[in-house]
Amino acid sequence: MIVRKWKKPKVLDSYVLIFTIVVILAGLSYIIPAGSYERIVDPTTHITYVKPGSYMEIPRTPVSIFQLFKAIPQGMIAGSNIIIFVFIVGGSFGIINSTGIMDRSIKVLTQKYQGKESLIIPILMTMFAVFGTTFGTAEELLPFCPIIISLFMALGMDRITGLAVVLVGGCTGFAAGVLNPFTTGIAQQIVELPLFSGISLRLATFIIFLVTGIIYVMRYATKIKKQNQMIETQKVYRFKRHDLAIIIVVISSISFIFYGVLSLQFDTIDVSTVFIIMGLAVGIVGGLSSNRIVAEFVKGASALVYGALIIGMAKAVFVVMEYGHISDTIIYYCASILDDVQPVAGSMLMYVFHTVINLFLSSATGQASVTMPIMKNLADLSGITRQTSVLAFQFGDGLSNIMFPTSGYFMACLAITNIKWKEWLKWMMPLFIIFSIEACLILIFSTMIDYGPF
Fold first, then answer.
1. Which residue has the higher pLDDT, 235 or 205?
2. How far apart are alpha carbons 410 and 402 in whole angstroms?
3. What is the rounded CA–CA span in Å between residue 330 and residue 375?
């Protein structure tokens, strides 16, 4: 009898996975009826809303083979702003790294915080969580990823630990949405709730998610630390002559980015502009020649080709759905599942619904404007408070943002830090399951107390 050795199945490459999704959706355009909701633009907020009850089927527009492949360059064009952003961030950090400031800064910080990792992880994660829950930060976390990763690798841990501190920290705050203008704020306006009402339960949710994330990351970090014991050294590291000027340029630039995002309505093009200026300024004060600045910029940008272009592939998912006019149909039929169910089950189904929709519509504002007008009516009909429906939306949108390969800023973070999606997914999945259980329990509680005001 011949016994064959079991081989562990290979996980699909991210490009293959996303292209498979594109092919499946193209095939579904031959099966799923084409449909459309009527949209209304609010003249005050300029937000586009779906008119409840306006869904209607339209002539089918199945995606041809040519359109299937056309969706890829079209997706690249649709995601060009964030693709360019990733290249510019990578190029700027290439210039910064070439000055040696990152290495020296990490060594000085490592020297200072040696043995104090249990303190630095919760402090940093809480900081990012506060940013996420008050300002709705997502793309703005990108500049921190390589810096935090370098710090934790120098402290004897790995890249996953550093990225987790940034992403999990930001995600817990974003999903709790205490004062998040892009989820809680917009969704509450759509369902006609007082702005940021019901804050007490969201604060409790914020603490639950954050503590869970911190414990999960710290347990992993402790395990990795034991596997990678650092060799103690008596050497004292100090900054060099130009380092203070470089640090001032970097801190000033990142501070200006936050000011611009919060006060000047900066978009990715504006932030990219600041990174270009920062890279040039660092090169000049760091004593690099003009040719060296260009060479290091190109080197840093070229290292991110794999991750940057996959963002365009992710956008191809939405392009194919637009070609086939099936996105509104998918939303319509998913929403119809919530009809005639008990309130407790309905609230959890709302969470599942938004999680699934987030795979195809990762923009928080876009998802809110498309789905919440429908959820508002479904909540009223099924005995679920509108406030609970907003909570389900926050959880479904926020918790999966650092899981799905169609999330632009998440894939950009992986690209910048050179971490494979399948590697991150393996690490993140148990935590996502824990978060989902907590989210469902909170939704059950909110349903039982008629979380309101209505």
1. 205
2. 6
3. 14
